[in-house]
Amino acid sequence: MPPWCPISPYKGLLILVIAFVLLEYFMNTFTSSKTSLYLNTTKLLSDDKENRYGPLLKTLLFKNNKTYSYNKTILSTTKNESYFSYVVTHPPSLASKLNNSSLTPSVSEATSTIEAQNESIPLCPDDVSFNLKGRIPIIRTPVPTVQDLEKRFNWLQPGGHWQPENCRVLSKVAIVIPFRCRGEHLLLFLQHMHPFLKRQQLDYRIFVVEQDGEKSFNRAMLMNIGYKEALNVNHFDCFIFHDIDLLPEDDRNLYTCPNQPRHMSVAVDILKYKLPYPEIFGGVSAISTEHFKLLNGFSNSFWGWGGEDDDMSNRIRYHHLHISRYPLTIARYTMLTHKKDKPSPSRYDVLKQGQQRFDKDGLNNLQYKLIHKKFNLLYTWILVEINQPS
Ligand code: BGC
Ligand code: MN
Q: Gene Ontology cellular component (predicted)?
């Protein structure tokens, strides 16, 4: 047949089929999606869990028997429970096949939930004002129970995590709370913060970092630990360090990290909604992951109340960064009442010598013992032992 002749219908169909197969092949080979699988393996815990679970999941996840690469993160291991996530990279066409039914019976013994994070969904809008309320009430009574809150916030994912369902947020935010013996405050905080952060359409997770024992408290060290442990769970772009007793009064106060470190608790009720001094960086603050690394985190040398935030303020200046703030009308907070701790008398001396230690006291000399890490529905709980050098 000469080349100018019209193509026969059979040949045309054949060409179309080949083109389609090639396109499908191309799409599957050169583009990829990611799916996170979170598995809670209460029943399957055994010594060979690593060997048994990993390869099994790797080959049996997909009915076509192909293996795909995955990143495995052990999220928590306690005595009777183990919880971890797999992020599986796979061709987009497999997204719908990734579900419980493709797991083998032995693997599906574990209760599993699947969170598909398809990279083809659109980005969330930058402007979230349509979803905000502005000033919001602070509720102090009655104090809710954990069960109340878990029922009310059943849209959460384990570890106090949420992200918008129908759009993708580029920046992941970790809220880190240094904690000890403030059960009621924690419940009031969670009750207030989860709906607040959700309205801001954030991809966030709440970490409660608790210091074990009764010895001198070290707020800064707990925040450094929160940073390190959070990054073991997931990638985060932004850290909000948050006192448990401060509740934001206005949801236009966005829990994000701007270009410069942001001091968030500018106007606190008990301080007559005024900034006590321009360098203050205490209460609630936002620092990007990148800056926190540059700053070498907080100093680990402040035991007892006070000074650690002033030292961070000095670190920020030393690194030619500056403290940014929302206006007093937006960055408003209510402080929950508690017995005031006695300020540490040594804090001024430690602060004075701070600069000599900026590059050797912080993230790079942090030492602690992780006692427990648990993914409660309302928050990721990290219990640690830290020791004051004698
Ligand atoms: C302390 C800070 C504290 C500030 C405001 C200062 O004297 O050193 O840690 O944040 O007072 O209460
Ligand atoms: Mn306080």
A: Golgi apparatus; membrane
